[in-house]
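Need a sequence for this fold. Nothing fancy.
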């Protein structure tokens, strides 16, 4: 049940305009808090108004405004694409069309089609996923690999941390294999330790690296983004990085 709480005397203040969600029988407290947050989130409302599938779309848009990630005609791979906000932004920015698709997205969740985006429903960590992505790009190199992937958390912090680190490493490894010289890599990271190793590896292969915490990323979330630009060119072998 949703109601707009009115202040005393019937006058609305900004605080009073907040939509409050009454707890309901059978709904967990955490679900009620989530629902209330969604209903009061300006990015959720803006995403809906602009026909974007996720509030996350604003994160990549903000990062693009600052770091100039997209240009027309470039090829983009979107890892962890569902429900599709980043792919929508990428398709528009690159001028990707159904006739000449420039954006490939992958997610193990099913997604509704997006014009100009080739979508694969698959776990990116499957051994054959990289080859399938390369095939979907017509064997061509990518100019931008972006990853917003995150596993659902288990609640067991060490396990969650290891799983997330693994996901980021696989994404970075893939980027080093498929990027064209001067390409870029953007990945969601979570504050906590092993990010330093990833950063060191990216610094070796890219001309510049940056941290980003877009305004549209919730302040109370540990998520942040790593942006690496100016790929120096394909490495000889993945072993180089393991030895470092
Ligand atoms: C935060 S959402 C991405 C939102 C997306 N950027 C957007 O704008 O709509 C993270 C996504 O990563 C996906 N994901 C996580 N691990 C994955 C994996 N191993 N393979 C494929 N997708 C994965 C999840 O299914 C989820 O849809």
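Here you go.
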């Amino acid at each position: 049940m949703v109601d707009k709480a009115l202040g005393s005397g019937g006058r609305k203040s900004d605080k009073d305009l907040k939509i409050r969600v009454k707890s309901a029988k059978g709904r967990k407290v955490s679900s009620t808090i989530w629902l209330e947050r969604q209903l009061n989130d300006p990015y959720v409302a803006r995403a809906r108004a602009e026909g974007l599938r996720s509030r996350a779309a604003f994160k990549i848009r903000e990062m693009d405004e600052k770091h100039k990630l997209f240009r027309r005609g470039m090829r983009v791979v979107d890892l962890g694409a569902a429900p599709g906000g980043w792919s929508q932004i990428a398709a528009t920015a690159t001028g990707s069309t159904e006739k000449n698709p420039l954006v490939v997205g992958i997610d193990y969740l099913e997604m509704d089609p997006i014009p100009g985006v080739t979508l694969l429903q698959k776990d990116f960590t499957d051994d054959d996923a990289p080859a399938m992505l390369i095939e979907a790009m017509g064997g061509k190199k990518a100019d931008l690999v972006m990853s917003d992937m995150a596993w659902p958390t288990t609640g067991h912090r060490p396990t969650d941390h290891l799983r997330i680190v693994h996901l980021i490493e696989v994404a970075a490894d893939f980027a080093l294999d498929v990027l064209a010289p001067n390409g870029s890599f953007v990945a969601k990271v979570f504050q906590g330790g092993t990010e330093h190793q990833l950063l060191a590896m990216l610094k070796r292969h890219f001309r510049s690296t940056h941290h980003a915490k877009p305004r549209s990323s919730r302040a109370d979330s540990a998520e942040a983004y790593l942006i690496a630009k100016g790929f120096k060119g394909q490495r000889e072998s993945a072993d180089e990085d393991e030895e470092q």
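For context: The CA atoms of residues 21 and 36 lie 6 Å apart.
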